[in-house]
Amino acid sequence: xxxxxxxxxAGLVMAGGVLLLAPVAILAATVASPSGExxxxxxxxxxxxxxxxxxxxGDVACPIGRPHHFTDTWxxxxxxxxxxxxxxxxxxxxxxxYAYRAGTVRLTSSRLGGISLWITSExxxxxxxxxxxxxxxxxxTGSRVExxxxxxxxxxxxxxxxxxxHLHWEVHPGxxxxxxxxxxxxxxxxxxxx
Length: 194
Fold this sequence. Notes:
Layout: E1 3-8, E2 11-15, E3 18-22, E4 25-30, E5 41-42, E6 87-90, E7 96-98, E8 103-110, E9 114-120, E10 126-132, E11 134-135, E12 144-145, E13 150-153, E14 166-172, H1 182-190
Antiparallel strand pairs: 1-4, 2-3, 4-5, 6-14, 7-13, 8-9, 8-12, 9-10, 10-14, 11-13
């Protein structure tokens, strides 16, 4: 493993094969080893003085770095008669995204989700991350991650192009239908009990 420090000035950046206009951001992360495993990330201090990293709580970690904010919008109306099946966690473009739980990554993309990924735990629970600006170095389909490992960077790809950057995050227990992820995010990101 080695430490990677990336400084991005306002301008064009290539992330996950997509050319992006990026704001100023400084990210520090331990990146993929020769075996392809993704290492843990570290971040700057949040406004409240706490570490900007994922801050694992037991076997889970907050899926997004700080500062961030979110509210419970489960079931809210969406375009095309859909309802919201996740929680939108708002943060600046480029804020690190972390594996919520240990598992295997599958990279995806779609018109709605844009650059996205799934993490499937050994127990079969699935976690969906959408609207990414790009993937972390070394992360690819089949990568094994641990809770708190860097997996990508916050953005607004897909149908979120006209919205502030955010992580659309879903929880699918046992690989089944989505459930309200807000209590899971609150527990991992704020230390509250779901």
